[in-house]
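Let's practice the habit of predicting before peeking. Look at the sequence and jot down your guess about where helices and strands might fall. Then scroll down.
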Amino acid sequence: MTTPNLTSPEAYNAEIIANAVKFTASLFLGRGEYATIEATSREEIDQLAEMLSTEHPTVKSKPVITAFDAAGNQAVISGQPAKAPKAEKPAKEKPAKAAKEPAADKALGKRAQIAADAEAGILPAAPDFSAPTHARFRKKLAEIVALVDKADIKALKAYPINPVSSSPKAMDKYRNLAVIALEAQRKAAKAKAKTEESTPEAGQ
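Done guessing? Here is the structure:
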């Protein structure tokens, strides 16, 4: 008969468990009644212990697992089945952050868009003076719109506007944007004409 290592309780139990030839799982059901099951391997007894708990869901305690070596020495492993080591979860890959769009690609604000359109030669829409508060300025606005339609840049620049209230400010803004657009149109037309003059006609 082999005597397990007695240097310490931990060493004693560890040697029995390491050389165990049988395992039991016992679940206390109450009033001196136990449900006991045996197995020859630790993995199997763990599974059977889980099964005992499943079969007796009203019992709050966990099965006591005990190991026995060939000499009959025993060691309590735990009051509940040993859980298999958790598999390490693969590190979650953080989704790559979308590259920030260049500032030039971002949608322009309303005011910036209107200014950009004017620089591209697109005439701005005339302000809406249908509200009663704009009534006394409608005639002047009509005069400015007529000058825009004629593309009279010189007259537009000379048109007197005193932007001290909302209506004159709106007219002034419209006039300035219109001038920018008309000048852009004129510049584009000159550039086109110059290109056509320098391009030899087909066949010559």
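How did you do? The chain has a mean pLDDT of 82.
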